Amino acid sequence: MEIDGLQWRKAAASNGNGACVELAPWQGEVLMRDSKDPRGPVLRFTKAEIAAWLDGAKGGEFDDLV
């Protein structure tokens, strides 16, 4: 997916070594990419999907993965 002009952003907690993902709004959805590979694959999510994931992350549902 080649889309120019997006405002990609990543968490302020990113440690600067490229070990993070970046998000960008696009046509009512949220795009996600690997910050180490900005020309690589892009995942598309609905806002509801991102909201559900954030809710789970805030609730600690994924803590065992890190």
Name the features:
alpha+beta, DUF397, globular, DUF397 domain-containing protein, 3-stranded antiparallel sheet, 66 residues, 3 strands
Number of domains: 1
Q: On the 0-100 scale, what is the average pLDDT? A: 90
Secondary structure category:
alpha+beta
Largest sheet: 3 strands, antiparallel
Total count of helical runs of at least 4 residues: 1
Along the chain, the helix and strand elements come as EEEH
- Uncertain segments are none
Query: How are the strands of the biggest sheet laid out side by side?
Result: 1-2-3
Topology:
Elements (H helix, E strand, L loop, with lengths): L20 E6 L2 E6 L8 E4 H12 L8
Antiparallel strand pairs: 1-2, 2-3
Pfam family, one: DUF397
Organism: Catenulispora subtropica
InterPro entries: DUF397
Explain what you see.
This protein is α+β, with helices and mostly antiparallel strands and 66 residues long. The protein has one domain (1-59). 18% of the residues lie in helices and 24% in strands. The chain is built from one helix and three strands. It has one helix at 47-58, and strands at residues 21-26, 29-34, 43-46. A three-stranded antiparallel beta sheet has the order 1-2-3. The radius of gyration is 13 Å and the shape is globular.
Short description:
18% of the residues lie in helices and 24% in strands. The chain is an alpha+beta fold and 66 residues long.
